[in-house]
Amino acid sequence: MSFEAVRKLESALGAALPSDYRVFLTTHTTEHLEPPLLVRHLVQVPGSGPEDVVTSLYTATSIIESELLGEPEERMVIIGQVEPGGYLYMCFKASDFGSVYVRFPYQDSTFYPVGKSFSLFMARCRPDSESDA
Question: N or C: which end of the chain has fewer CB within 10 A?
């Protein structure tokens, strides 16, 4: 991943990315995770077990090209995909900058926290060793 794609994403957002996420994006070249990751919830998510399956972490280029800027009014950007039918979001509000959330928009409008930063989100993840990926 090029620094140029990261700069384009920051320009589209009108904000600098959190430093830990920025470093991740500069080396992250593929969206689909093999094996997927399991992320533990910080709070109970209705209809989910204690973990959700993260199948994708998007590249800066894919966020820009797919216009995955998420929920602009909430200052939430989609950064990945969670099964079944959910997304990972990163918050760009000053009060919660860089926090990562999971949301299942077709089931529930609530954003559920999974990390106060991208690094803390990743620390809550583990490989899904039982995946068929």
Answer: C
> What is the pLDDT at residue 68?
60
Residue linked to tokens 């299942």 = 104
Please state whether the peptide bond connecting residue 35 to the residue before it is cis, i.e. omega within 30 degrees of 0. Answer: yes
pTM for this prediction: 0.90
Mean pLDDT value of segment 38-56:
89
d(CA 112, CA 60): 23
Question: pLDDT confidence of 75, banded at 50, 70, 90?
Answer: confident
Residue with token string 């990743």: 122
Alpha helix segments (H runs only) across the chain? 3-13, 19-27, 60-65, 118-123
Cα separation, 100 vs 54, whole angstroms:
12
For 16, phi then psi, to 5°, come to -75, 145
